């Protein structure tokens, strides 16, 4: 027992974990103890080895040296088990919550292995209510919202530990959740810890990490560079550990903030010229009567609560979703109704989609193939695809956008989140678009890369592009946008510009979503 | 992007370790690691051709008088080129993530169509051949419409259309083998020829060359691959997915039609039962081909080598006295082995 009364029983000990991939050491002599009843956070920049460490714990990778020891608490007891909730929740959308839980926890069966649905339904209902979920066990996962899904996945993983105490490992449990729902996940994590299990979680959000974790382990370049008590630490401390004290690396959230905001002052929207994109009377599944002009040289932020239709608006702009009425004209061109992304691109609208692993890049193809996918014809000369030229050109661009490792032949899937996004940006830059639509461009991107990405955004605007940034992250939105449009229930509810684009005003507009004109 | 900006980004190096020196390992070890990886990759890429060479050497030593003869080798090519053609046709939809299970039935139907048109209706055999290939492409269009407009998965749509076609084959043939005197110029397509190699073999290899060019050296081929590897991402990157799927299904059907015509030329008659037996070996060769040359991607050279491997294996084994049941066992065994080894290797990586 220590001074706070938490029992210091290690459930799992990792000792001297080292992992070498193709001659590159990605994890170096890492020790990690997970204690019963403790919430332990793992932080580090992209590529610092967090994912590798988790994958070794889960048995997906074998360590090159070192080992993981699960410690039986008393003689005769079973070894504590580990349960994982990865970023991909591994839920089957078309199956019910109950069936999804049964997938990993097994079925209760009676005579002749008949499934005892009734008792299973009751058990699942108990589980769900314990985790503060008001969803029915029989509803399909596809009908649930993002937060519910995540809670179901966490409940299932906890349930799979059984009656014993175990270790629950969560990879980015709050990523992509609306800020006002994060606390629900935290409450569940605390519940699991109170019951005597250990919780290990990975996060990019340092402020969140400090508010929930007890112990924080910081990885940098595959090494543990710090292990601190959250109570004695600050966001600045953690960032300093993560990125080192080197002057050029951006050290903490405030600087990220400042770096992005500093970009804003330099540009002015060119309202005299024809709009880069004009939406007129757009109606679709969720959108109602959207009229928006995007001016060349401006960054237009679009936000709103979950379900307000902001992502749908992005898809409509990019031709990825059909609208039922209305037109889009690009750069003073003919008003059109896009039916395919290809058509939107031909008009000059490029799109950076939200779910990078599914929509952003082709995971099994290499960086080169992904970057040139939209502009292949330019390498088709004298009747052949000039692959040497293509390779050189991509290698050069990877230096320009700072994508590492600088290997154009590496598979897209093998790049970290931030670097994948740089490759997607590289592809968009090659298309010389008049309008760029970015939906949630910094999801799963480390803090250090975010200003880099927004610098590209600002540069595209400076180059005469109209840029649309869609995000629920108000900090980022306020930092990057010259003008903000707030959506509510598919309608434009408010528009803020210039001096009005402040955290308070945008936050208020999102929260109330009240209908008001431009003032 | 301005050149100033380029420099800025070049300086903004992120601290992700791409630098070898600070890893504390001797550089040599890393080189050895990289070299070892390249060697393993090379071994994987050359698995099928190496096995083919090994079999040819083995059979040449075991049956020096009957295996490594011009007659035998050209015979192997001349008996397998129809299968090769069907496999090449079926390969195109596989590249973009679709199945065409109707290719075997299209072959059977086309084989019958050219025979019926020319022998029962007295149409010039070359005109009949042209009509037949066009008909096959129309079947491909129908397949594509079911897939793209009715949103039926290509697996089901082509299974259904193929089954339906096998009935039409029986209908137009009146359920009998259609035979008669076809012009010798037509029959020569599938028999004899330069050095005992039938002209059909060169047609098949020519189609292979065209596909090799189209798939690996043009933007269309690259886009087709992108559709197969990540359809949603490809669509959002501006790739015209539907057009490519349409193209692939029409081409596979057209090539299967050509294979049907050549099959009639080789056999001198049309059997309503021919066709379905080509489907599975053709697909198997494409899958086997995807483990070699460009592992993980369906590819033309790999498919051709796989057909050769299976043909040589069966020819040699039968010369060694293996009974008839050995062929499918050999085909299936090689496929399982090759794909299995590739998957296990991919998992370890």
Report on this structure.
The complex is a heterodimer of chains A (519) and B (349). In chain A, β6, α5 and β7 form a beta-alpha-beta unit. Chain A is 33% helix and 23% strand. Chain A is globular, with a radius of gyration of 25 Å. Chain A has 3 domains: 10-249, P-loop containing nucleotide triphosphate hydrolases (Rossmann fold, 3-Layer(aba) Sandwich); 258-348 and 433-512, 3-Layer(aba) Sandwich (Rossmann fold), CATH 3.40.50; 368-432, no CATH class. Chain A is α/β, with parallel strands linked by helices and 519 residues long. A 6-stranded mixed β-sheet of chain A has the order 5-6-7-3-8-9, sandwiched between helices. Chain A has a 6-stranded mixed β-sheet with strand order 14-17-18-12-19-20, with helices on both faces. A two-stranded antiparallel ribbon of chain B has the order 1-2. With 349 residues, chain B is an all-alpha fold. Chain B has 15 helices and 2 strands. Chain B has a domain at 61-275. Chains A and B meet through β2, α10, α11, β16 and α13 of A and α1, α2, α10 and α11 of B.
CATH topology of the largest domain in chain A: Rossmann fold
In percent, how helical is the residue content of chain B?
Answer: over 70%
Query: How are strands sequenced across the largest beta sheet of chain B?
Result: 1-2
> Structural class of the helices, strands and pairings of chain B?
mainly alpha
Query: How is the quaternary structure best described?
Result: heterodimer
Q: Which CATH architecture of the largest domain in chain A?
A: 3-Layer(aba) Sandwich
SSE ordering of chain B: HHHHHHHEHHHHHEHHH
Cα-atom radius of gyration of chain B: 24 Å
What is the number of independent domains of chain A?
3
């Amino acid at each position: 027992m220590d001074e706070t009364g938490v029992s210091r029983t290690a459930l799992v000990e990792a000792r001297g974990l080292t992992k070498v991939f193709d001659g590159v050491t990605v994890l170096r002599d890492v020790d990690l103890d997970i204690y019963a009843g403790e919430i332990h956070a793992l932080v580090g920049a992209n590529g610092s080895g967090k994912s590798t460490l988790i994958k070794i714990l889960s048995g997906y990778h074998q360590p090159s040296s070192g080992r993981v020891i699960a410690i039986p608490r008393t003689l005769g007891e079973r070894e504590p088990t580990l349960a994982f909730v990865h970023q991909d929740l591994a839920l089957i959308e078309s199956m019910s919550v109950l069936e999804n839980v049964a997938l990993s926890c097994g079925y209760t069966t009676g005579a002749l292995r008949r499934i005892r649905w009734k008792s299973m339904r009751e058990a699942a209902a108990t589980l769900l209510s314990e985790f503060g979920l008001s969803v029915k066990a029989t509803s399909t996962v596809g009908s649930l919202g993002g937060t519910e899904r995540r809670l179901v996945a966490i409940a299932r993983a906890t349930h799979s530990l059984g009656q014993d105490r175990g270790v629950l490992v969560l990879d980015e449990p709050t990523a992509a959740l609306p800020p006002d729902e994060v606390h629900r996940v935290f409450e569940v994590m605390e519940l699991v810890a109170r019951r005597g299990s250990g919780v290990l979680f990975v996060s990019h959000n340092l402020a969140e990490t400090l508010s929930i974790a007890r112990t924080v382990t910081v990885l940098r370049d595959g090494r543990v560079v710090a292990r601190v008590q959250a109570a004695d630490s600050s966001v600045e401390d953690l960032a300093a550990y993560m990125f080192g004290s080197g002057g050029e690396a951006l050290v903490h959230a405030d600087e990220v903030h400042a770096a992005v905001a500093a970009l804003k002052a330099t540009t002015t929207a060119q309202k005299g010229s024809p709009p880069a994109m004009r939406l007129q009377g757009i109606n679709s599944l969720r959108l109602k009567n959207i009229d928006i002009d995007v001016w060349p040289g401006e960054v237009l932020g679009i936000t709103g609560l979950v379900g307000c239709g902001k992502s749908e608006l992005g898809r409509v702009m990019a031709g990825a979703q059909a609208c039922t009425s209305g037109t889009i004209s690009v750069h003073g061109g003919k008003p059109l109704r896009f039916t395919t992304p290809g058509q939107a691109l031909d008009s000059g609208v490029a799109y950076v989609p939200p779910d990078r692993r599914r929509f952003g890049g082709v995971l099994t193809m290499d960086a080169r193939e992904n970057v040139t996918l939209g502009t292949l014809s330019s390498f088709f000369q004298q009747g052949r695809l000039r692959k040497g030229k293509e390779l050189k050109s991509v290698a050069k661009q990877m230096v320009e956008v700072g994508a590492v490792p600088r290997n154009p032949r590496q598979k897209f899937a093998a790049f970290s989140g931030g670097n994948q996004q740089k490759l997607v940006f590289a592809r968009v830059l090659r298309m010389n678009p008049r309008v760029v639509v970015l939906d949630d461009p910094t999801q799963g991107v480390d803090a250090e890369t975010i200003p880099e990405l927004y610098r590209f955004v600002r540069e595209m605007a400076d180059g005469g592009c109209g840029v649309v940034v869609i995000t629920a992250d108000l900090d980022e939105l306020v930092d990057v946008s010259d003008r903000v449009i707030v959506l509510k229930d598919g309608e434009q509810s408010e528009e803020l510009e210039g001096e009005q684009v402040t955290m308070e005003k945008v936050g208020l507009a999102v929260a109330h979503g009240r209908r008001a004109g431009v003032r | 992007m301005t050149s100033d900006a380029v420099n800025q980004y070049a300086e903004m190096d992120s601290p992700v370790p791409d630098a070898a020196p600070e890893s504390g390992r001797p550089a040599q070890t890393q080189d050895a690691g990289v070299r070892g990886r390249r060697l393993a990759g090379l071994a994987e890429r050359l698995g099928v051709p190496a096995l083919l060479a090994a079999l040819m050497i083995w059979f040449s030593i075991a049956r020096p008088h009957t295996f490594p003869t011009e007659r035998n080798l050209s015979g192997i090519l001349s008996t397998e080129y129809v299968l090769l053609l069907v496999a090449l046709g079926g390969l195109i939809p596989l590249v973009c993530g679709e199945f065409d299970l109707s290719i075997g039935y299209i072959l059977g139907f086309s084989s019958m169509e050219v025979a019926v048109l020319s022998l029962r209706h007295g149409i010039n055999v070359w005109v009949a051949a042209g009509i037949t290939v066009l008909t096959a492409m129309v079947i491909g269009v129908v397949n594509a419409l079911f897939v793209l407009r009715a949103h039926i998965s290509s697996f089901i749509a082509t299974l259904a259309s193929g089954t339906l076609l096998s009935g039409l084959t029986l209908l137009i043939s009146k359920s009998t083998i259609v035979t008669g005197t076809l012009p010798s110029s037509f029959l020569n397509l599938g028999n004899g020829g330069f050095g005992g190699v039938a002209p059909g073999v060169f047609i098949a290899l020519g189609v292979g060359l065209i596909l090799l060019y189209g798939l690996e050296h043009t933007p269309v081929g690259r886009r087709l691959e992108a559709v197969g590897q990540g359809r949603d991402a490809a669509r959002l990157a501006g790739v015209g997915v539907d057009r490519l799927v349409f193209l692939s299904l029409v081409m596979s059907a057209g090539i299967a039609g050509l294979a049907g015509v050549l099959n009639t030329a080789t056999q001198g008659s049309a059997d309503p039962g021919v066709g379905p037996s080509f489907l599975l070996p053709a697909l198997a060769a494409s899958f086997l081909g995807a483990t070699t040359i460009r592992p993980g991607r369906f590819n033309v050279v790999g498919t051709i080598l796989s057909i050769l491997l299976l043909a040589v294996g069966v020819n040699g084994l039968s010369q060694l006295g293996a009974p008839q049941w050995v062929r499918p066992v050999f085909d299936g065994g090689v496929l399982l082995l090759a794909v299995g080894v590739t998957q296990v290797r991919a998992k370890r990586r």
